[in-house]
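Subgroup meeting minutes
Present: P.N., E.W., G.H.
Scribe: E.W.

1. P.N. recapped why we're keeping a running log of single-chain structure predictions: easier to compare across weeks, and new members can see raw inputs and outputs side by side.
2. G.H. added today's entry (95 aa).
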Amino acid sequence: AEHLRGKKHRRLRNLRAERRAQERRSLFVSGFARGTSGAELAEYFGTFGDVAAVVMDKEKGAYAIVELRDAAGRERALAEPQHGLAGRRLRVRPR
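Output recorded in log:
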Protein backbone atom coordinates (compact mmCIF):
# COMPACT_ATOMS: atom_id res chain seq x y z
CA ALA A 1 0.00 0.00 0.00
CA GLU A 2 3.09 2.22 0.35
CA HIS A 3 3.23 2.72 -3.44
CA LEU A 4 -0.24 4.32 -3.40
CA ARG A 5 1.32 7.42 -1.81
CA GLY A 6 4.10 7.64 -4.42
CA LYS A 7 4.50 10.43 -6.96
CA LYS A 8 3.75 8.24 -9.97
CA HIS A 9 0.51 6.94 -8.46
CA ARG A 10 -0.55 10.46 -7.48
CA ARG A 11 0.11 11.69 -11.03
CA LEU A 12 -1.93 8.84 -12.52
CA ARG A 13 -4.80 9.54 -10.14
CA ASN A 14 -4.76 13.24 -11.11
CA LEU A 15 -4.64 12.32 -14.79
CA ARG A 16 -7.66 10.01 -14.43
CA ALA A 17 -9.62 12.65 -12.53
CA GLU A 18 -8.80 15.24 -15.22
CA ARG A 19 -9.88 12.82 -17.97
CA ARG A 20 -13.20 12.14 -16.20
CA ALA A 21 -13.80 15.88 -15.78
CA GLN A 22 -12.96 16.35 -19.47
CA GLU A 23 -15.48 13.67 -20.46
CA ARG A 24 -18.19 15.46 -18.45
CA ARG A 25 -17.57 18.53 -20.65
CA SER A 26 -17.27 16.67 -23.97
CA LEU A 27 -19.63 15.70 -26.77
CA PHE A 28 -19.38 13.05 -29.47
CA VAL A 29 -20.53 14.61 -32.75
CA SER A 30 -21.13 12.90 -36.09
CA GLY A 31 -23.24 13.34 -39.20
CA PHE A 32 -21.49 16.46 -40.53
CA ALA A 33 -20.37 16.74 -44.14
CA ARG A 34 -16.94 15.45 -45.12
CA GLY A 35 -14.47 18.30 -45.09
CA THR A 36 -16.18 20.17 -42.25
CA SER A 37 -13.47 21.90 -40.22
CA GLY A 38 -12.95 21.90 -36.49
CA ALA A 39 -13.37 25.68 -36.60
CA GLU A 40 -16.86 25.31 -38.11
CA LEU A 41 -17.87 22.88 -35.37
CA ALA A 42 -16.35 25.15 -32.71
CA GLU A 43 -18.34 28.09 -34.06
CA TYR A 44 -21.58 26.10 -34.03
CA PHE A 45 -21.12 24.69 -30.52
CA GLY A 46 -19.90 28.09 -29.30
CA THR A 47 -23.59 29.05 -29.12
CA PHE A 48 -23.94 26.65 -26.16
CA GLY A 49 -20.80 27.70 -24.30
CA ASP A 50 -17.07 28.34 -24.65
CA VAL A 51 -15.43 25.62 -26.74
CA ALA A 52 -12.11 24.46 -25.24
CA ALA A 53 -11.12 22.06 -28.04
CA VAL A 54 -12.35 20.16 -31.08
CA VAL A 55 -10.62 16.88 -31.90
CA MET A 56 -11.45 15.61 -35.38
CA ASP A 57 -11.31 11.91 -36.32
CA LYS A 58 -8.06 11.69 -38.33
CA GLU A 59 -8.98 8.54 -40.27
CA LYS A 60 -12.19 9.37 -42.11
CA GLY A 61 -13.28 12.68 -40.60
CA ALA A 62 -16.55 10.97 -39.69
CA TYR A 63 -16.80 12.25 -36.12
CA ALA A 64 -15.40 14.80 -33.70
CA ILE A 65 -15.07 15.23 -29.97
CA VAL A 66 -16.11 18.73 -28.92
CA GLU A 67 -14.94 19.76 -25.47
CA LEU A 68 -16.65 22.73 -23.84
CA ARG A 69 -15.10 24.73 -21.00
CA ASP A 70 -17.83 23.72 -18.57
CA ALA A 71 -20.37 20.95 -18.08
CA ALA A 72 -23.27 23.45 -18.27
CA GLY A 73 -22.48 24.18 -21.93
CA ARG A 74 -22.48 20.47 -22.67
CA GLU A 75 -25.85 20.07 -20.93
CA ARG A 76 -27.30 22.95 -22.99
CA ALA A 77 -26.10 21.27 -26.19
CA LEU A 78 -27.51 17.89 -25.13
CA ALA A 79 -30.86 19.50 -24.20
CA GLU A 80 -31.23 20.83 -27.77
CA PRO A 81 -33.56 18.38 -29.59
CA GLN A 82 -32.00 18.79 -33.03
CA HIS A 83 -28.63 20.00 -34.34
CA GLY A 84 -27.80 20.94 -37.90
CA LEU A 85 -24.79 22.32 -39.75
CA ALA A 86 -24.64 23.24 -43.45
CA GLY A 87 -27.92 21.45 -44.14
CA ARG A 88 -26.83 18.22 -42.45
CA ARG A 89 -28.38 16.86 -39.28
CA LEU A 90 -25.79 16.30 -36.57
CA ARG A 91 -25.84 13.43 -34.11
CA VAL A 92 -24.75 14.77 -30.73
CA ARG A 93 -24.20 12.40 -27.83
CA PRO A 94 -22.41 12.44 -24.49
CA ARG A 95 -18.86 11.21 -24.80
